Amino acid sequence: MTHAVLTTRSAHSRLPRPRVWVGPALVAMILASGCSYPVAEPINMELISSLRTALSARNEQWLKANAEIVEERHASGEMRDDEYGAFRGIIDQARAGNWADAEKATLKFQRAQRPTREQIDEVRKVRG
Fold it and tell me: With a threshold of 0.70, does the pTM exceed it?
């Protein structure tokens, strides 16, 4: 008795493999979807608060001013690419009219921050 061996391929193996492309838009989309945000450089931590204020006020002029600062700091090397992606993702959401979602994303970004050694030392001085 001869047994035929059937080889089956799963449905997944028949699908074309996606190309992997990681660009600023993809990074921003991942960050905005709820994944963790980067810890910002100390110089950029205040910018998160400023952006959140612009978003909560739904103020397009303040949003534009924050966007300009983000671009300037990234171009000058004062902002890393991961920070830039987070800021740009949030700013792009607001520009698309998703102010509430952008504000929620900013809050998540803000909560991801950790105090710097200098900030901790300053608090210790005050508590004395």
Answer: no
